[in-house]
Inverse folding.
């Protein structure tokens, strides 16, 4: 390696390091300032909580033994929500791709369903499937499925017309066009939809937990609010951000794996 | 011997605004082993005609015969090559070449062997496990041609197959493709708007008029068949053919 290349790599690493350090400094400063401001009564810790109070509340739930149960339930609902949303949405997109007539017929319905805030349907769903996890998962599913149908279908329809023609010249019919061209060509669109759905699914799950749950992080947030325990609310939100971040990174990692392999 | 016969093709397009006639009574035939080019002003319907022969579009009237038998559906005996190579990025070079066979469920040891022989013959053997994006434009077009040849078609339809390449690559690929088609003894029909390319590669050039396209003239190219397209461009007759076709095309501007 030449000296110039060596220095270039060093500069690159230095920059990356600086970015990480500044990020950590911001994070810790916020927590430290928050703590100090709360302890010195500059802000009212009853309304804003403080990191130390959040920590106490965390330890309390942990010793009660329910912490991981809450986290697990919420994660479970979210994962089932976004995976089923992506799979069902993609399947419906395949059907609409297959039948152009059906696609045209259903287009206005999709537009209306897309514009409708799906949470508005929550009370009906609760009546239909009962007060529990399945209602929450269905709300999460509803939020992501319509967007998935629309993005994946657009991905399918964006595939180069000439490539479709190519398969036809080989004597391929619709099924072969789907299998050999449309699905492999749209895999990246489907994975992007999966990524978007992680975020949407969280919205659905937390919303659903606000409405019906007896467990889960969304339940902790609403419950903490009701009993005026802002420490509990703040702590739950921070755990939530952490898990949402990890889940998003996980999907991004899978995406990277798949495309490296390809 | 007559390989392909096109008789009385008419093509009308329908839209809400009315009917437009694109092709008007097109008839011609191609002999076995012949290389024929179709030239014409842009938008005259050359590619439409090729699509009709491949049965990708139905003509308003007219019939197409291959080896004396009427064609009624997309036929595995017709190979089609596109303007862009249309290689699938996610498949290796080998899998791209084998795509047609796979779709027709004919991929077996014998056809694999055939593909291996083709790639060896045409200097792509070292690349069979590579992805198309790692290949140059000229190589990609060669892979596209082998993908068509893997199905062993009786006739090749080439739809402006070089127009996406830069000029130097294009001359080189002209030679490659011409060489491969000659060696494999294929009959070919090529659509192009490049007069020089048409003369340098073909035995015969068919000139189409403006829309609605009719056959204006057929010109037999009498330049030594054993020369490569690049060498044929040096032939004294080349200029004369060029001027003749140029004039025919310009009358209809």
């Amino acid at each position: 390696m030449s000296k110039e290349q060596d220095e270039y790599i060093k500069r690159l690493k230095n920059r990356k390091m600086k970015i990480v350090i500044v990020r950590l400094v911001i994070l810790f400063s916020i927590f430290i300032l928050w703590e100090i401001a709360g302890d010195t009564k500059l802000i009212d810790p009853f309304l804003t909580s403080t990191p130390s109070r959040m920590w106490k509340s965390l330890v309390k739930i942990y010793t009660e033994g329910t912490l991981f149960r809450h986290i697990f339930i919420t994660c479970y609902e979210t994962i089932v929500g976004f995976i089923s949303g992506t799979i069902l949405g993609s399947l419906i997109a395949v059907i609409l791709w297959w039948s152009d007539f059906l696609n045209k017929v259903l287009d206005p319905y999709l537009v209306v369903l897309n514009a409708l805030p799906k949470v508005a349907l929550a009370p009906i769903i609760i009546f239909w499937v009962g007060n529990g996890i399945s209602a929450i998962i269905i709300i999460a599913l509803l939020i992501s499925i319509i967007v998935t149908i629309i993005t994946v279908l657009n991905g399918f329809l964006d595939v180069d017309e000439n490539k479709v023609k190519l398969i036809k010249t080989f004597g391929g019919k619709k099924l072969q066009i789907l299998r050999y061209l449309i699905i492999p060509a749209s895999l990246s669109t489907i994975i992007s939809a999966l990524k978007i759905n992680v975020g949407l699914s969280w919205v659905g799950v937390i919303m659903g937990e606000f409405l019906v749950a007896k467990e889960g992080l969304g339940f902790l947030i609403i419950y903490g609010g009701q009993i005026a325990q802002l420490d509990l609310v703040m702590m739950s939100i921070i755990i939530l951000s952490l898990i949402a971040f990890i889940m998003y990174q996980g999907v991004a990692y899978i995406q990277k794996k798949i495309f490296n392999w390809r | 011997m007559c390989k392909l016969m096109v008789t009385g093709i008419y093509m009308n397009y329908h839209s809400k605004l009315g009917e437009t006639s694109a092709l008007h009574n097109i008839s011609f035939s191609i002999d076995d082993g012949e290389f024929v080019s179709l030239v014409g002003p842009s938008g005259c319907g050359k590619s439409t005609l090729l699509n009709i022969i491949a049965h990708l579009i139905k003509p308003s009237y007219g019939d197409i015969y291959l080896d004396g038998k009427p064609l009624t559906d997309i036929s595995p005996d017709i190979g089609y090559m596109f303007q862009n190579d249309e290689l699938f990025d996610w498949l290796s070079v080998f899998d791209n070449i084998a795509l047609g066979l796979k779709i027709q469920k004919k991929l077996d040891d014998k056809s694999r062997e055939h593909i291996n022989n083709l790639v060896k013959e045409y200097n792509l053997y070292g690349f069979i496990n590579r992805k198309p994006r790692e290949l140059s434009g000229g190589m990609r077009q060669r892979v596209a041609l082998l993908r068509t040849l893997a199905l062993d078609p009786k006739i090749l339809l080439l739809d402006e197959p070089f127009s996406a390449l830069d000029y130097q690559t294009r001359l080189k690929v002209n030679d490659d493709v011409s060489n491969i088609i000659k060696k494999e003894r294929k009959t070919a029909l090529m659509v192009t708007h490049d007069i020089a390319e048409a003369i340098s590669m073909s035995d015969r050039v068919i000139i189409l008029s403006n829309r609605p396209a009719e056959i204006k003239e057929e010109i037999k190219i009498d330049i030594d068949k054993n020369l490569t397209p690049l060498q044929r461009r040096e032939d004294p007759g080349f200029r004369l053919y060029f001027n003749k076709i140029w004039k025919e095309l310009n009358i209809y501007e």
